[in-house]
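Dig into what follows:
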Amino acid sequence: MLGIFDPFAPELLLFLASVLFVAGCVRGFSGFGAGMIFIPVATSVVAPATAAATFLFIDSIVTLPLLIRAVRHCIWATVLPAAVGAVIFVHLGAWLLASTDVLILRWAIFAIVTCLLALLISGWRYHRLPAAAVSFATGSVSGVLGGISQVSAPPVVAMWLSSANDPAIVRANMIVFFTLASVGTFVAYTLNGFFTQEVFRLLIMAVPVYGLAIFTGARGFSKADPAVYRKFAYVLIAVAALTSMPALDPLLR
């Protein structure tokens, strides 16, 4: 049984499991953010495509219990157009991942995420329900980022956090969105050959670790002050920006 993990040193598996547990706790609490934590760290020790494909698989399967509750609270009028945009444009992101210089992609992600964070911190609010076209366009940008790195949250998070919706609704929107969007990502990654033997070996370790972490994080959200949620989301977006910045590689990798 242990021979399955031969390509990976025990220290590497323990390291990835630790990072994945933290990422899963964050996902269970906030409804997003796991990719922002896991992907930048994991790509420092395994191939970017392997890290992204592994995370996509576990995040789609393990979070299904969260989806059951979220579908009753999300706002479909904005979630569905955003998900359609993401499903369509994730193929562009996957193509860029397979054919474009990684350094260029990372600087582009940093620029987009930083601009979105600045918009949120400025205090700007969109008090109406986002129009279908706005939701579609925002989801499209998320799809491209998801295809590149599985860090697709910042655009849709910024859109829904800028509204006056209750944190529980924002969280439900994101859980449903990411579940729907992952369908397109699965197709794109399969067509690009990202689901390798290394990915399925890592899944044996990753699924139980991530499942326990999701449960832990979800329990935390049920007891959290709503005011804490928005601040926590801002911190996660800032983490996404910093970990995407190539200039900080000597410190973060």
